[in-house]
Each structure stands twice: as C-alpha cells, then as structure tokens.
Amino acid sequence: MAEAQAPLAAVKVEALVVMKIIKHCSQTFPTTATGSLVGMDVDGTLEITNSFPFPVVEMPTESHFDNAAHNAAPNAAAAAPRAKANAAYQSEMIRMIREVNIDANNAGWYTSANMGNFVNMNVIENQFFYQKEMNERTVALVHDVSRSAQGSLSLRAFRLSAKFIEAFKENKFNSEELQKSNLRHQDIFEELPVEIHNSHLITSFIHQLQCPNPSGPTELPASLSALEASSFSKSTTLTPNFDNLSLNIDPFLEKNCDLLLDSIETHNTEVNNYQYYQRVLGREQQKINNWKQKRTQENATRATLKQPLLPEDEWQRLFKLPAEPSRLDSMLNTRQVEQFSRQVDSFVSATTGKMFAVKGNLLPGETAK
Amino acid sequence: MAEDSFLHLARPLGPVSVGTAPTTAPLNVVIQPQAIFSILDHSLRRNADQERVIGTLLGTRSEDGGEVEVRSAFAVGHSEAEDQVEVDMEYHKQMLALHLKANPREVLVGWYATASELNTFSALIQNFYSGQGDGTWPHPAVHLTVSTEAGKDLETRAYISAPVGVTAERAADSAAFIPVPYELRYGEADKSGLEAIANAKDVEERSTSVMTDVEALERAIEEVLGMIDRVSRYVESVIDEETPASTAMGQFLLNALALAPKVEPADVERDFNNHIQDVLVVSYLANTIRTQMELSNRLATAQLTLGGGEATGTTGEGNQRNQRGGKGGRQQRQERAAPEEARA
C-alpha cells in the first residue's frame, strides 16, 4: 500500500483544528501541551479535520523533593503522545468520534512550543513512535504560542525523514555511521507546507462576523462620547491584527539570546564529552599497542626458544574500548540553533522595516534625502 | 449576528428541594469561537437524512453562576422520527468522561442543535440536560441553536429553560425556553489564529497558507493605509461640502492625530541607532553561532574523508579540530555577553 502512494507533500488544516490547538496550547502555556490529530490522506495532502487533547497525568506532589522526579514532571505532558495510557485514550476517542462521522484516521499529533524550542528528544521520540507504530503517514504540528502572541500565527508541520528514522531505529549516531550515512542536522526533519482550510459554513460565519449587515446608511454620531460608545469603535473585526505593528524588540531578543546561550552551553558539554571520550580512547589505544608490542617480542623470543606461540588477539579480552557518545544530542542542538537563528532573522527583517518606518515618520526630512 | 435586545425576567423555578436555592439572577452566555466551529463542523458531517444534529456543550461557569462560558463542544448522535426521538445517552456519557479527563476544568453546561426550531423534542432533551444526576442541575442548562440552513444567515441563539406545569405526565416533554443574551468572545491568543482563518474567506478554494512575519506586517500596513485613505476621502468630501460634517467625528480624528508623539530629532536618531544596532548584532551573532556549531559538528564527523590515514591518527586530528570548534563557541559567547550588557 505504501509504495503506491505519493509521499506526503502538504498538510491542510481545518480552521476548527487551528482554533482547538490554539485554545489548548494557550490554556496550558507555558507547560507543553500535546494532543492527537485525526484526518484523511488525499493524494499526498494530509487533511487534518479534527483534534483532541491528551489528558495530562498529574504527578504526585511528594515527588517534588526527589530531583529525578522533579525533572520528569514537566515532561509528563511532552511525553504524553507515546505513553501507554494515552494510546488507549486515543483509540477510545477515535472509536467514539467515528460514530459521529468524523474522519477517524490517526493523522499525527500536535505540541506547543515556546519561541521555537521544540527540537528535542521528546518530539523526536513521539514522532518516531507515530511514524513507526501507528501510521507512517503522520505529522507533528508545532504551534508556537509566544510567536503567535506577537501577531502572526505560527503553525508548522514536521515529519522525520526516512534517513533519520533508519538511523534512529538502530541508534547509529557515532561518527563512523554518520560518515557512512551522511546524515546531517538538516536531515532530521522534513517540513511540510501548512495550509489552512475553511469549510463553507465557517466561511459564511466569518463573513457575518466581520460585517454585521448594516441596514441602511449609518447616521453620524451626535457627540464624541456617542461615537466612542457606538459599536464601531469597539468593533470585533478580525483583521487586521495590529499586534504585529507594535515595536516591541527587547523582550523577544532577550529571550532568544537566553535560548541561544543555553544551546551554546549544551554544545560545550557535548564537545567536552566527546573530547573526554577521545582522550580515553587514545589512552586505551596506547595501552593496547604497548601490550601488542610486548606480546610480539615475547613471541619472537619464544619462537627462538622453540616454545609454542601465545595468541596475539588476547587484547580484545583484556582491554575494553570506551563507547563513543552518541552524536544525536549535538545534532539536535545544532538543529535547534538553526531554528533560533532563522527565527531571529525573520523577526529582524520585520523589525528593521518597522524601525525605519518609525524613524521616517518622526523625522520626515530625513527620508526625503 | 442577530442584534437582539434582552429583558431579564426572573425565571420560574421548578420544584426545589430544601437546602438548595437555585438563583434567578440574570445569565449571560459567552461563546468561544472554537465551540461554534465545532458545531459548524458537526453540522457539515451530519447524515444525509438528518435535518439537525445535536451535541453537548462544555465550558466553565462563573462563581455566582451569572456567566456561562462555552468553551468546547462535541457531537452526540441522535435520530428523530415522527413521534419519537432517540439520543445516544451512553455515547454522551462516555464522551463526557473522556473529555473531562483531558480538560478537568470544564464542566457540562448544556447542549446545542443546528436548527433554530424549538419543538417537543427540544424540550425533552433540554429536560435531560438540565435534570438532576447527569445534568447541570441546580444550574440551568444552556441551549444553543445555530441555524445552518443553506442560503440563509447563520443565526445563533441561546436559551435556558424553565419547567412548565401542565400535567405530571407531560412535564417531561415540556419546557419554557427563555432567550438569554450571548456574546462571542475570543482571547488574545485566538486572535492570530482567527486572522489567519479570516484570510481565506475571500479565496475561492477557501484555503490559505500560514504567513511569515514580513507578510503579516505587509498586510497590516496595507490595511492601515487603506483606513487612512478612507478617512482622508471622507475629510476631503466634507471640505468639498459633499457629505454633512460632524463635530464628533472631527473631534475624534483630532484626538487620534494628537496621539503622535513630539520628540526631538536627536533623541529619535539616538534611540534608533541604539536599537538598530542591537537588533542587527543579535541577528549577526545568531547566525555566527549557527555556522560555528555546524562547522564544529561537521568537522567532528567528517575526519576520515579528509585524511584517510590510520584510525588513531585521524582521531587525534579530529580532536584538535573539535577543540577549535569548541573554542569558537566559547568566544562567541563572550562576544554575545557584551552587547547584552550594553543593552542592560
């Protein structure tokens, strides 16, 4: 079945799903929220037509003192999609919604993110679980709450690439394997274009929401207070959203800098780990070489004395080479940094435009030059 | 949307057991867009022979019970015949339990139907939802009707009910529906989503892609330019004495124009330069960090393709390179700290 189908090329999200995800993610912000997506696959376009949130398993309070459990607590929601209890919840829910004619095929899952910090092991493992266990044609939708609060909706769809899945399955992340497979951090995810689709009813609903059908020409207001009190000044029109016109630079940049610093920290740790590994490896290699030389000399003397030779491959039992640390973490980290810098770029391009506009506005003479 | 005006009447109460005092205070219903979207979606997915579909509304109730916020909805299967109605109560209960597991803060607040008509069946279902035990009792159940008839406006109405005393046998299928005011409310977070959805409203395919930051900015600016055009057209036509003038309008515009800040050009210049430098430096550094990390990772894994020598030799080489990459990262960090201090 799989080879007959074209690979997934795009994701079409229903307006309902967009609203549901926004609701769930902003409700639980800043904790990560996750949920399941259902939909249909139509000729390479995955149509996501409904969604439901995953229940969060509450951690018992006494475990807060326990350091390990404390670290695990915020990840409870993030790990939810692959938790066993939720698999049952999901299949139950899908069984239920099938009865009311909603598309009951698993189409993936969604998660919330804060400033694009979604590239981590949890997302990888969840998506791996989905693509492997549930259905190959699934996506992860990432809704960035803090970026959406700045005015423009941030909703992106990701899949793990086939190459990465292959490597992840066998945990092939040491340098030798990476050289062989030529897997780079750009190859972890495949991003799919996201399209928002409205049903006819929603289209007509939004049209009504925007212009409340004026019955005849509007009368001019009698006084200033009447104007301010009228429905026009507090209109509920959806567009434009002027949030993205505000010139609010510092919080965003500071947050991004913090995240970048964290990433550098992680990178350094990884590099140090690797260096440590290499030092240990070098030492062990040295020992082995010494041992081999000794054995060869011994055998040479034994040969002259006509004694039976000692086996030369005994070193494999005597010495143990250290295991190479996985490069996966540093790969993810690099991918994460790339995500941050793209985000900064996109922000900067809009901000510089706004700043020049403000300057031109306040100093009209300057722009004429 | 229907612009109805409402008169709050103390609603009649049913038989009250001792100890509980149902309130007769006015009730206001707030609907969040995702609930309406759910209802519309369900209406699209109804069976061909069904005229209307029903479902359960969930949400929160304010402490005094004076405001009900409808947050989400799910569909419940039902079938209507000439003289009987069948609602899948088992389904409703299971779905409610599943929903509450994921949204522990939401409670059952009522039900919806996708036709404006109120009939005996409506009363029957309403009595179930507002009943004791599984229903919303002692709070009133909200009944929301969203008409989805083709070719007509979508009409939303909210009701609560009161029991009408006819005879004991008929009490179950009779109820007096009292219309209550409702409003559509969406939060800050929903705004960007709704904007994206609204983008698709004038497109024939009814679909749109997610905008980038710059595109969104462009749109907003175009929108503002359009508004300024409209206002200046109006002002011009007033000056040409084509449209009647309005003092209030003039005052309003004057107030808006007075909002423009008055600042010294030197101050503007200084602030502008400070900020633009910050912005550009962060962008530059972010990209440098990215390049450095990528380089360091590449070098760590690409050693063999360059040297092709002995395993031990190349590991050492890689080690050195790695160190260089690491140092680069550290250097970046120091540089990074400087502008941040400057800004603080």
Automatic annotation (TrEMBL), chain A:
UniProt-recorded Gene Ontology molecular function terms: metallopeptidase activity; translation initiation factor activity
**Could you name the Gene Ontology cellular component terms for this entry?**
eukaryotic 43S preinitiation complex; eukaryotic 48S preinitiation complex; eukaryotic translation initiation factor 3 complex
Gene3D superfamilies assigned: Cytidine Deaminase, domain 2 (3.40.140.10)
SMART domains (UniProt xref): JAB_MPN (SM00232)
What InterPro entries would the database entry show? eIF3h, eIF3h_C, JAMM/MPN+_dom, JAMM_MPN+_peptidase_M67A, MPN
Q: Which UniProt keywords apply?
A: Cytoplasm, Initiation factor, Protein biosynthesis
Q: What is its main location?
A: cytoplasm
Biological process according to GO: formation of cytoplasmic translation initiation complex
Entry annotated with the keyword DNA repair: no
Q: Which Pfam families match?
A: eIF3h_C, JAB
State the family named in the UniProt similarity comment for this chain. Answer: Belongs to the eIF-3 subunit H family.
Q: Which PANTHER family match?
A: EUKARYOTIC TRANSLATION INITIATION FACTOR 3 -RELATED
Described by its record, this protein's role is as follows: Component of the eukaryotic translation initiation factor 3 (eIF-3) complex, which is involved in protein synthesis of a specialized repertoire of mRNAs and, together with other initiation factors, stimulates binding of mRNA and methionyl-tRNAi to the 40S ribosome. The eIF-3 complex specifically targets and initiates translation of a subset of mRNAs involved in cell proliferation.
Assembly description? Component of the eukaryotic translation initiation factor 3 (eIF-3) complex.
Stated name of the protein: Eukaryotic translation initiation factor 3 subunit H
Q: What is the lineage of its organism?
A: Eukaryota, Fungi, Dikarya, Ascomycota, Pezizomycotina
Automatic annotation (TrEMBL), chain B:
Q: Name one Pfam family in it.
A: MitMem_reg
Indicate yes or no for the key word Protein biosynthesis.
Answer: yes
Keyword Ubl conjugation applies:
no
Show where the MPN domain sits.
29-165
Q: Which GO terms describe its biological process?
A: formation of cytoplasmic translation initiation complex
* Composition-biased stretches (Basic and acidic residues): 332-344
Q: Per its database record, what is this protein's job?
A: Component of the eukaryotic translation initiation factor 3 (eIF-3) complex, which is involved in protein synthesis of a specialized repertoire of mRNAs and, together with other initiation factors, stimulates binding of mRNA and methionyl-tRNAi to the 40S ribosome. The eIF-3 complex specifically targets and initiates translation of a subset of mRNAs involved in cell proliferation.
Q: What is this protein called?
A: Eukaryotic translation initiation factor 3 subunit F
User: Which source organism?
Assistant: Penicillium canariense
